[in-house]
Design goal:
41% of the residues lie in helices and 16% in strands. It is an alpha/beta fold. The C terminus is likely disordered.
């Protein structure tokens, strides 16, 4: 261990408040509504803008939108801007009790399509490169499948499970849910109106309980590794800022996805009609995390088999858990590289069309 580096890191962590630079990349709100705010990130001075579709980042419910901008030097937003891409992001804000009746169709039919169209209007592009992580990726898949007029150039989904039977974490619960019909849990989320933010944070941490237990030892053994300490600090910050789920969305996830595993066959009954993933007719990149217990590789890769209408489907695996596959330290040379290559391969510019 480098004693000098360790001493500097300890001083910064415990005297100056931390080693991670959590400064967000500068951005401006361009369209706002009670449902969501669309932000445009400011270009990096001195970096020429690519003649390519803008990238629109769609977060899941539960996690804050800054998962895409976790910390300086480990931020997908910063990376994309550094390559000259125009970047937009959606922020849902904190879920309120008044939002308890909102269902998945609100995001699939309204929020995501409107954000895409607003991004086109603000950028002058004819279509966007849509990127979704976790449940955000499922929202994007369903939005693209439900309405072919939504102007999407490419779709990239990261850590988005469609086959819940392949998730060991919830597999033991599915037979019990089938027997009970989920009545006990339904009564709980109906009564409280939401799946609270502290519980969401606790569930995320529970999936990595081994790392939670060994974290003090990891910190002590890596005191001279500033990048490692900064990543731990940034992940802790994200976990302390998780959001809740509207009660109805949580109910749909539980009944349609967890209990019935409807999406595993490529269709989902939502909002009074059946949405079929085979209707997606744009290139799709799918990335799964090799150590992801929330969205294991098999649960994520399944979607590649269902996208029969897409002209180009690419599946890649990358190291990391559910957050790590998106913005872990190794994502810089894996997930982000896959995304760069995929976007460049389909970069027929739609600007100004």
């Amino acid at each position: 261990m480098g004693l000098t580096s360790a001493a500097v890191n300890v001083a910064d962590k415990f005297v100056r408040g931390g080693v991670a630079d959590l400064t967000r990349m500068p951005r401006d709100a361009v369209v706002g509504s009670p449902a969501a705010t669309l932000y445009r990130y400011r270009p990096v001075p001195g970096v020429p803008l690519l003649d390519a579709p803008p990238v629109l980042l769609v977060p899941p419910l539960g996690a804050p939108d800054f998962a895409y901008d976790l910390r300086r030097d480990c931020s997908l937003v910063q990376h994309l801007l550094g390559t000259g891409r125009t970047v937009f992001g959606v922020d849902y804000g904190r879920i309120r009790y008044a939002d308890r009746r909102l269902g998945m169709e609100h995001w699939v039919d309204d929020v995501v399509p409107q954000a895409v169209r607003d991004t086109c209007a603000e950028s002058g592009a004819g279509a966007v490169d849509l990127v979704g992580w976790s449940l955000g990726g499922i929202f994007c898949l369903l939005a693209a499948a439900a309405d072919s007029t939504v102007p999407i150039n490419t779709l990239s989904v990261i850590g988005s499970p469609v086959d819940i039977a392949a998730v060991p974490l919830v597999a033991p619960l599915r037979p019990l849910a089938a027997v009970t019909g989920g009545l006990g849990l339904s009564a709980v989320y109906t009564a409280i109106g939401s799946f609270p933010a502290p519980v969401v944070s606790w569930v995320f941490q529970l999936t990595a309980v081994d790392k939670l237990v060994t974290k003090p030892l990891t910190i002590l053994s890596r005191l001279d590794d500033r990048d490692c300490l900064a990543q731990i600090e940034a992940v802790d910050h994200l976990m302390n800022n998780m959001h809740g789920y509207p009660g109805r969305v949580f109910g749909q996830i539980y009944h349609l996805l967890l209990r019935q595993n409807d999406l595993a066959d490529g269709t989902l009954a939502l909002g009074g009609r059946v949405i079929a993933l085979k209707e997606i007719d744009v290139p799709v990149l799918v990335v799964g995390g090799r150590n992801d217990v929330i969205a294991p590789l098999a649960a994520v890769e399944r979607v590649a088999e269902l996208l029969t209408g897409s002209p180009d489907v690419r599946f890649e695996s990358a190291p990391g858990g559910h957050l790590g596959v998106l913005t872990g330290r190794r994502a810089r040379t894996t997930t982000w590289a896959y995304l760069d290559e995929f976007l460049s391969r389909h970069a027929s510019s739609t600007t100004g069309e």
